[in-house]
Amino acid sequence: MTSEDWTTPGVYEVVPGVHRIPLPLPNDGLRAVNVYAVTGPDGPVLIDSGWAVANARELLESGLREIGAGLGDVQRFLVTHMHRDHYSQAIHLRGEFGTTVALGAEERWSLELVSRPGRKAAEEQVALLTALGAPDIAEKMHSGNRGHHDPAEWELPDEWLKSDQFIDANGRELEVVETPGHTRGHVVFYDTANSLLFAGDHVLPTITPSIGFEPAMTPDPLGAFLQSLAIVRSRPDVMLLPAHGPVVPSTHARVDELVEHHRVRLDQMAAALAGGAETAAAVAGVVTWTRRERKLSELDVFNQFLAVCESGAHLQLLVGQGRATMQERDGVRYYAVV
User: Fold this and answer.
1) Ordered DSSP codes for 165-192
2) Average pLDDT of every residue of the chain
3) What value does the mean pLDDT take over residues 48-69?
């Protein structure tokens, strides 16, 4: 498989007993999410579930059929984090078949917020945009009417996962490792005996994961992410089975690239502060985005939102490192280099 064709629908054997099933995403630049089926006589264990939309369900059902199972045969869902493209189909199918759903324990904070009746999508991040100096983007997000969450999509799981748990998945021992950063409750699953890492969105082979895109935000999501990368880097190198992108042979190689990427970005944002930018929005307008090095104004509203929030995460880490200071005035955060 190559990075150009990893989204092609089908069932792909990673190693004997583990199959990758890419499922489509609606209105998402990522195009697909990988669901991994660990097969065995007691029915498959699925790592992540996809977005609860009709075509994703159809492709999951047909994929399972190819490996001799049906939706009702799934033993349990092991979900890496609470984002809709990983979690919502598991909750939907649990309602239909009673399948057990497990999720990282620290995701409880966000699920409790997101399941409030009447809550608008990305409500907390829209408020954050104003604090980061981007009221114009906040207004566009608000007026864009991204809609209300259906609380039923955000029901709590059956089991909360924490580090040092071991899960039997059809004879494979999967170790749970908490990897906060992308979300505060993100977990990965190590199959150490077979040198596999089911990485969710923690380590992605072709893109950098967004940081702290969640309702219950933490003070330093980028710092947490880099610490989580260090945990993964300290373990033996294994094959990387990501949620988005092709399977690749080395997790360590990609971790090193991600660490270097954020080192460079921190330096770029410190330079933007030195050049006169004061808010995260102003910094986001100075640096460029994506591999095409686009300006902030060239991004769509949702990606402008992500860019400003990620700039805020980098600036907060610069503060934590003693390289910058932050003062809040009239509800807006202003940064300066030390």
Assistant:
1) -EEEETTEEEEEEE--SSSTT-EEEEEG
2) 94
3) 97
First to last CA, the chain: 47
pLDDT of residue 4: 58
155-181 residues labelled b (16+ CB within 10 A) or e (exposed): bebeeebeeebebebbebebbbbbbbb
Q: pLDDT band for position 336 (50/70/90)?
A: very high
- pLDDT above 50: residue 1: no
